[in-house]
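Bench notes, afternoon.
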Amino acid sequence: MVNTGARPLTVTIIGNTSWGNTLGNLLANNGATVKLWTRYETEAEELNREEKGYFFTSSMAEALEGADLVVWAVPSQRMRWNVIQAKDYLTDSMVLVSAAKGLEAQSGMRMSEVIAEEIAPPLRDQICVLSGPNLAKEIAQGLPAASVIAARNPVLAEKLRGLLESPNFFLFSSDDVVGVELSGAFKNIIALGAGMIDGLGLGDNAKSAFMTLGWAELVSLGVSLGAKENTFYGLAGLGDLIATCSSQLSRNHYVGFQLAKGRNINDITASMPHVAEGITTTLAAQRLAQRQRLNLSIVNAIYEILYRGVPPNEIMTRFKELVTSHR
């Protein structure tokens, strides 16, 4: 449990990502002492010369020394590696937060599960997750946003809400870790399809119907995995879905749009400075659906477009089939 007394909160951000830096700025502005771990020493030295208001280091030991709160803001497929680098420096006084929105591709595990698998058992009750409609560029500009902090212990979630909230960044607490994490991961799959629909010029009516029916499929998968249904229709679910499917800042919408315009998936991702989590999440969700004996036509369609070379206009064929099955 975080208990800093009179001294400032000490926070370690693991991951020199746009979201990691945005969280670093938010917390520094709240009065916290912030250290951000980045992989390369030359990168840390260069960033420290920019005087961003917090400290960069490539030493994991230095980054985690004295930390009250540790936040992983890394791509989901790098989460396990990053936790392994940190685990020997974690102590039982630290609260651990995943700010990543994805599933491990091969195992289908949520990020909190990945963290729990790699750390000492006594630390597992201190894992929390942060997710919501959080387009990093808008938050970095000081625009208002809201998110959800979830922990199995509601007292811990509420404590963190008070520590992380700022004048333009509002937080809600939840005890549905499974639902909050799956919402943040699954919405990226729908955003890929929404981008395809926009790229094909099919209109907002088609996109709205696609989002509604596709989300219903993924809610059924989430509930089968232990999530609470109402979480998917709250801020961490529906709120994040709307932002990711409509914003020009959405990486996953961008990938879907570019696919519909005829670009190759490898060329698209190679040209992007950041990761579109929906690509690997689609693979994980497709496997989870098979494991749960669920036939998710939208997930299957996006999987085949991404991994089997099926043309993006197939998304409309599957959508029409889904509409027919729901009538």
